[in-house]
Amino acid sequence: MTIEEIKTEILKTESKIVLLSHKNPDGDTIGSALALYHLFSNLNIDTTMIVPNDFPDFLKWMPGADRFIVATKEEKLAHQSINNATLIFFIDFNNYDRINHIEHIVKKNNAPKILIDHHPNPEYFFDFSLSGVTVSSTAELIYSFISHLGYSNKINKSIAESLFTGIMTDTGCFSHNSSKPETFETVAKLLHTGIDKNKIYNNLYNNFSENRMRLLGYALYEKMIVLSQYHTAFFSLSEKELQKFNFQLGDEEGMVNYLLSIKNIIFAVIILEKKNYVKLSFRSKGFFPANYIAKRYFHGGGHLNAAGGKSYKSLSETITKLQTILKDDQALQKYF
């Protein structure tokens, strides 16, 4: 499909658009979906947003965030919306395993499928793909997509807030994957709409609970391990420890960056014990390939400097595995 053909599909009277976000949604997938939702709704197009599971409270301040269908809570409505869709957007993910239990419903629908994403190694089942791994965020690609549709003049404050949120969160407040002028040119155009950058920052980063701050302090003081020979720092938290601090969805957001701020540390990991698996979040500096470790060893993936994965071993076995990888993987030794 071409941009012109997509625009024709969007503007058809009978169009029913579904915007899919990935599981464990972050600011980029939520902000990007909301931006398209506001655009299409303003064009009087029937548009539905679906997330496989719920997203953190610090993202729920954005206009329209309450209109997401959370598939784990409203499964029947999610399935019905997908079955009726005439156009399906995959936003900030590029393979089916990122939408969990709604995958089979999406596969059954033969409607055109549109990919807008900036992660590596996309699957090839899309009718149109706007993909670029060197772009800061999917939100930046959404801005480009809207412009190519000829609707840049329709970017209002709600759309701009959503896109700014996506870019800011996925670059760690412009600390990584944000060195291209095009990113800041896009941000400048968003600021020209009159959005309040300070309000957005406060809603995202100055909005945590007291329990979350105490958990962070505990993790850094009691649980942090520094492996200076590998320029690596990590901490792990058991399910019991998380419960002690009344852990809530999204409480881990940004914690790994504290480890990366240590002098001479180029690789940081947080390891959280969940009910049926162990979650790992990776961050790195420079050319250290966080996504290589995530993909090769931990059923995950992501970007060079920001990635995630899972382990189905115990918490202690996962920690041992990570340390063994750093010690034995020959491809990593040049970084140490």
Chain-wise SSE layout:
Elements lengths: L2 H9 L4 E6 L5 H16 L3 E6 L16 E3 L4 H10 L2 E5 L11 H6 L4 E5 L10 E4 L6 H12 L7 H14 L10 H11 L5 H9 L4 H14 L1 E3 L4 E6 L1 H6 L10 H6 L6 E7 L4 E7 L5 H8 L3 E2 L3 E6 L3 H14 L8
Helix pairs in contact: 2-5, 2-6, 5-6, 6-7, 6-8
Distance between the termini: 46 Å
How many domains? The number is: 2
Helix content bin: 40-55%
Question: What is CATH's topology name of the largest domain?
Answer: inorganic pyrophosphatase (n-terminal core)
Task: Give the topology string: H per helix, E per strand.
Answer: HEHEEHEHEEHHHHHEEHHEEHEEH
- How many H/I helices? 13
Spatial strand arrangement across the major sheet: 3-2-1-4-5-6
Task: Give me the Rg, rounded.
Answer: 20 Å
- CATH C-level name of the largest domain: Alpha Beta
The low-confidence runs, each spanning 5 or more residues with pLDDT under 50, are none
CATH superfamily of the largest domain: inorganic pyrophosphatase (n-terminal core)
Instruction: State the secondary-structure class.
Output: alpha/beta
Tell me the strand percentage band. 15-25%
Largest sheet, described in full?
A: 6 strands, parallel
Can you tell me the CATH architecture of the largest domain?
A: Alpha-Beta Complex
- By DSSP, the count of extended strands is 12
Dominant shape: globular
Indicate the mean pLDDT.
96
